[in-house]
Amino acid sequence: MEKRWVYKENPEAAIVEQLSKEININEYLAKILVQRGVRTFDEAKEFFRPSLSRLHDPFLMKNMDLAVNRLTEAVFSEEKILIYGDYDVDGTTSVSLIYLFLKQLSDKLEFYIPDRYTEGYGISKKGIDYAINNDFTLIIALDCGVRAIDRAAQAKAAGVDLIICDHHLPGDELPDAYALLDPKQEDCKYPFKELSGCGVGFKLLEGFCQQNTIEKEKLFEFLDLVAVSIASDIVPIVDENRILAFYGLKKLNQAPSAGLKSLIEISGKKNQFSISDVVFSIGPRINAAGRLTHAKESVNLLIGDETETSAFADNLNDRNKERREFDQTITTEALEMIGAFKEDRKSTVLFKKDWHKGVIGIVASRCIEHYHRPTIILTESKGKATGSARSVDGFDVHEAISECADLLEQFGGHTHAAGLTMPVKNVGKFIDRFEQIVSEKILPEQLIPKVEIDTEIPLSEITYKTYNIMNQMAPFGPQNMAPLFGTKNVIVDTLPKVLKEKHIKGFLHAENSTKLFEFIGFGMADKMDQIETGVPFHIGYHLEENNYMRNKSLILNLRDIRFDA
After folding, report:
1. Phi first, then psi: what are they for 405, rounded to 5°?
2. What would the pLDDT profile of 34-53 be if each residue is shown by its tens digit?
3. For a designed S-S bond to 454, which of 210, 364, 483, 556 qualifies (C-beta 3.0 to 4.6 A apart)?
4. What gap in Å lies between CA 70 and CA 155, rounded to an integer?
């Protein structure tokens, strides 16, 4: 698929030059830092050396005093506390964080995860009934609840207090909970709005520690769980999330909790885990239980001790293998269905009643990799058509779905991902309406995958010094992605090898130099005909370290190749 190259805007040259001198780095890295809001020596120091002392005061969050006071009362009066969380990675890590921390102070705790298929997303009636029938006096709801108007009313009517820790966008009406913690509330003055659900739970515990003079180091022991939530929920790695992710990854790599350690071991990865590694190795294994059976399996793993975790991890790994098989089978079917469409469609909406509900979001993302357009995958559940939507960069799929609200029973989500449910009889009308809306609103360039180059750089600057400084910009993730470099007019030294009939690997050099640089291009075997001609070409790439048989060297991981100017 042809890609669209976009070069980030060059910042003011004088600021780049000044920063380059002050912190002794080349102008290309300085330019990337300025693009990311780092303009002075002090800002660079703060960026390169994140500190837990710079976390925001939890009591700046609206209702934090109410929530901390109620939690303190419940813990020290030995009330029964139910810790309730969503079934995805953010929800299960949130529940595990609160449970493991409070377990040190109370033995009157239980956790509750709703069943994806019988209870659905959010706080369920069954969950509130469970709390009422089992004499719980406090529920802490994590990663859900900001729109749970009816459930909050049900809890209040039964005399059960509800603390909601959420990070999703509130609706016009707020639930009447004992305390609602959500930095996205309009009148919440908390300075950082992009915490994960687990991050909001962490702030509740931080406030609890502060009020009860408990050393925060006891809380920081669980930062590996917070880092997994930040990575898996794809929240921006900036501000407070950067600090939490930095120290959480350090904990994950040096002394992970028993549950996460067992997942690391079963993944087979030997090197240090990055945010990306968590997303692709740990997150799917935690998610697999909620997608195929029940997410309480994931919590049992995350809160278990070393004698229990190995069996739990094996179980989750088996679930993840099952999930992969469903994912691959359904993706193949979906791509075949898309292939029968007219080429001029601007959206993809597919419905098949026997597709597995737990993997349709993954399938939607896979389809976008092949056909770059807003995509919705629907299946049948409880007699309704239910599905997941994924979008392309810059197109608000949630807004497009909202314009079909009269055809839907419910929907929710955000710009790039959403969920929806409708009567099966409305699927045909929905497909036509959604296509019409997308066709009217989407820009032509949004239908072409984008390669966003941070900076052009000559190969002469590709050194270990550049690599080591760049690595200190990690953890990489949304709003702080690993830098993508661009270099023009390179030539292959000898014909590259083709690996598995799909990938290419070889050596290249600048047009005016003989110094060789190793490269790999995944899925780029189709470029071989042009490369063979010996004509100079342009590359967009990530700079990585190749660690083969303990021999370390730099390698250019190509994102794209262009032969035009």
Report:
1. -55, -35
2. 999 999 999 999 999 999 99
3. 483
4. 15
Rounded to 5°, angle at Cα 413 from 407 and 419: 50
Query: Is the four-CA dihedral 457, 459, 461, 465 of positive or negative sign?
Result: positive
In the predicted structure, residue 286 carries a pLDDT above the cut 90: no
Residue 275 makes CB contacts below 8 A (sequence gap 6+) with 227, 230, 231, 237, 245, 249, 474, 475, 476, 477
Cα separations in angstroms, 325 against 115, 336, 418, 530: 22, 17, 24, 36
Q: Within 13 Å of residue 525, how many CA atoms lie on the same side as its CB?
A: 8
DSSP for 330-397, please give it. HHHHHHHHHHTS-TT-S-EEEE-TTS-GGGHHHHHHHHHHHS-S-EEEEEEETTEEEEEEE--TT--H
Is omega for the bond preceding 236 within 30 degrees of 0, making it cis? Answer: no
In the numeric block, which tokens belong to residue 157?
């009517």
Average predicted confidence (pLDDT) for the chain: 92
Helix, strand, or coil here: 452?
Answer: strand
What pLDDT does 291 receive? 63
- The answer to whether 147 and 35 are in contact (CB under 8 A) is no
Q: What is the pLDDT of residues 229-264, one digit of tens each?
A: 999 988 999 999 999 999 999 999 999 999 899 889
Task: For residue 128, give both structure tokens.
Answer: 């509130």
Q: What is the pLDDT of residue 78?
A: 96
Q: SS3 of 50, please?
A: coil
C-alpha–C-alpha distance, residues 196 and 218, integer Å: 20
Please give the Cα distance from 418 to 439 (Å, whole number). 19
> What contacts 510, CB < 8 A, 6 or more positions away?
458, 459, 460, 487, 489, 490, 491
User: For residue 290, what pLDDT is reported?
Assistant: 63
The CA-atom distances, in angstroms, between 465 and each of 25, 49, 158, 433, 513 are 9, 18, 63, 54, 20
Per-residue pLDDT of 482-540, as tens digits, reads 999 999 999 998 889 999 989 999 999 998 899 999 999 999 999 988 888 788 999 99
- Give 392-405 pLDDT, tens digit per residue: 999 999 999 999 99
The H-assigned helical ranges of 212-238 are: 217-220, 223-232
| Residue 348 to residues 351, 428, 450, 456, Cα–Cα distance (Å) | 10, 13, 19, 35
**Residue 452 contacts residue 393 (beta carbons within 8 Å):** no
Q: Is a pLDDT exceeding 90 seen at residue 295?
A: no
Q: Count the Cβ atoms, other than its own, within 10 Å of residue 381.
A: 16
Q: What is the length of the chain?
A: 565
